[in-house]
Structures are given as C-alpha cells and as structure tokens.
Design goal:
Alpha-hydroxy-acid oxidizing protein; alpha/beta; oxidoreductase; Alpha-hydoxy_acid_DH_FMN; TIM Barrel; 8-stranded parallel β-sheet
Length: 369
C-alpha cells in the first residue's frame, strides 16, 4: 500500500483485481456517463489562488460535522453491498472510518446488518431509502436509533434507479453470499440474472417508493429525533425548502453520475445552493471528490464537508480496513498540504480564497467566510 501515493493509484490497482462485473458496478454511471465525467471536469476547473506572507506556522484539517468533531471535513458516503469487494465489507470500512475520526454512513442496502456494523463503534450515520413498506421504513429508523446511530441521511434522488448500461450489458446480479442484510436478504430479485438487465435495479424497483414527497419528510421528522440529512439535492429551491423545514444538513449530489445522465456536476450546483441556504444548515458535497485539494475546493465553493464513496471502495477491495484507511490517509495528507500551500489555517478558511472557474477566466470574488 505504501507504493500507492494517490487515489488514482489505488483505483488502478483495485480495478486490475476485481471481477469485471463488480468493477463496472462500482465505477459505472448512468446513460452515456456524461455526468460521471462532468463531476471530475468541474472540480478540475476550479483554481484556487493561494495567499502568501500569511505568517501561518500551523494548520489543522479538523472540522465539525453535525455538531461533532471530525478529523477532517469528510464523511464516508453510503455505498451498497460492500462485501462485493471484500469479505470484511461494511465492518472493515467502519473500522477505517473510526481509525481516522470521520463519520461513516451505513446504507440501507448494506451487506452487513446495521447492528453488527455498530459494534465497531465510531460516528455512525444511517442512510435511508424510502421503501414502499412504510412499516419497514419505521422499523429501520428504530433499529438505527437503538443501535446508537447519530443521524439519518434520507436519499431523495432515486425515485427509480438510473439506467446503468454497464450493469445491463453485464446482466449484473449479486452473488449468492451478498444480500441486502437490513431487508431480510432482499428477496431473490437482486440475485436473478437476466440478459440485458440489472438485477439490482429490478430489486430497487420492487422495494423503493417513487412517490416520496415533502409530506413524507414531515412524517419522518415526526417519528425521530435524530438529525436529518437530505442527500441528492440539486436545485436551490429544494435546498431552500429543506432548510426552512429545519433539516440539519443537505448533500449536494447527482449520485456520482449514476442517476440522471446530463445533470450538472455537483460542484457547479454548490455555489447557488450555498447562497440559497445562507447558513441555515450544513452543506456537504458529493460526487467526484478524489483528492485533498478537491476537499479544499469544495470548502471554497461553500461546502462544510464532503462525502467520499468510490475511492474508499477501491481501497477496501485492495486490503480491507487497511486499504480504506490508507486511502483516507492519502486524502488527509493532501488536504493538509493544500492548506499549507494556500495559506489557510483550516478548511473553512478556503471560503476567503479567490476562485478561478477555469484557466483564463477572471477571478470570482471570495465567498463570505
């Protein structure tokens, strides 16, 4: 692992070792994968103008997420079926997050029961998909509360699963030893291989309720005291409406390019959403983050933190907890270097930097700190 000096190295090694179907399931996007590519392009286009002569002798990557300290402004994104890449699955990933002092978000579609993951400890959030069975939704909420999870993250951008052509071409289905453990195994749909179709998409069509609306969010608020995070917000009007309902955080996300192909990059959506929210709740950026400098770019654009997904799955695939932890170490090291090189004592200080949207463009004024 020491020879892998960036996330790109980790991904390259993991791709070479994984089954092609699993590799495509992790790395692929929806449609022509335009949004998947746009996420990276948008972040690459953000240029931060360093400050000099600041007299800065030290810096800290630490942050506060949902009122709790974190070693850096980063939480592990919810990712389904982690036993696909390593037998340790979600427990191994949770150990890496705990070791690095960052929150870990457990998916409704985890391949390990949420209670077993909780025994690892650390700062745990539970991601909730809106299911057709309202009783099962409430059951999952209660299980998360009883197991000591600290927040609920409601994913709001999957009324149906985006058409992921790689999975369809592969006829992708879960192997027998990997199940939706929180849903009693998830039935047989996710394991039933069909030519030209994704069995995982078949399962979500059966299980997910596409009619999720604002009244459902109010119902959820009435049935839990846990902080609520909305993941998948792309429009400032929705962000403003969420903030007015007292949501503790929103995640600006296009689901890693895996839902609506042709949607804008998450980084492009962040500044107007930050303006609409105006500090009433925390904002996390998801989709495309691959370096510590990306984390600082997100902060400069108005985010309080980021979610990291695929890079940690690549690390998990290579060496379980150690591989995921190594990936987190790389990101923290790069973030610390970016702080030093831009003259920022903390990630939030990046909001005072001048941002150049692309080479040759006039600089934008700094955001209010």
């Amino acid at each position: 692992m020491r020879a892998l000096v960036c996330v790109e190295d980790v991904e390259r090694e993991a791709r070479a070792r994984l089954d092609p179907g699993v590799r495509d399931f992790i790395g692929g996007g929806a449609g022509d994968e335009l949004t998947l590519a746009a996420n990276r392009a948008a972040l690459d286009a953000v240029r931060l103008a360093p400050r000099v002569l600041t007299g800065l002798a030290g810096w800290s990557t630490a942050a506060t997420l949902l009122g709790q300290p974190a070693a850096m402004p980063l939480a592990v994104a919810p990712m389904a079926y982690q036993k696909l890449v390593h037998p340790g699955g979600e427990r191994a990933m949770a150990r890496a997050a705990r070791q690095h002092g960052v929150p870990y978000t457990v998916s409704t579609l985890s391949s390990t029961p949420l209670e077993e993951i909780a025994t690892v400890g650390g700062d745990l959030w539970f991601q909730l998909y809106w299911l057709r069975d309202r009783g099962l939704v409430l059951e999952l909420v209660r299980r998360a509360e009883d197991a000591g999870y600290r927040a609920l993250m409601l994913t709001v951008d999957v009324p149906v699963m985006g058409r992921r052509r790689r999975d369809a071409r592969n006829g992708f289905a879960l192997p027998g030893g990997v199940t939706a453990a929180n849903l009693g195994g998830g039935g047989t749909a996710a394991h039933r291989r069909r030519p030209g179709a994704s069995a995982v998409a078949d399962h979500t069509r059966q299980a997910f309720d596409p009619a999720l609306g604002w009244p459902d969010l109010d119902w959820l608020r009435e049935h839990t005291t846990l902080p609520l995070i909305l993941k998948g917000v792309c429009d400032p009007r929705d962000a403003q409406r969420a903030a007015s309902r007292g949501i503790e955080a929103i995640v600006v996300s296009n689901h890693g390019g895996r839902q609506l192909d042709g949607a804008p990059a998450s980084a492009e959506l962040l500044p107007p959403i930050a303006d609409a929210v105006n500090g009433r709740c925390q904002i996390l950026l998801d989709s495309g983050i691959r370096t510590g400098t990306d984390i600082l770019r997100a902060a400069a654009l108005g985010a309080d933190g980021v979610l990291i997904g695929r890079p940690l799955l690549w690390g998990l695939a290579l060496q379980g907890t150690q591989g995921a932890a190594h990936t987190l170490s790389l990101l923290q090291t790069e973030l610390a270097e970016a702080l030093a090189l831009t003259g920022c004592p903390t990630p939030s200080a990046a909001r005072t930097l001048h941002i150049h949207p692309h080479p040759g463009a006039p600089p934008s004024p700094p955001r209010t700190a």
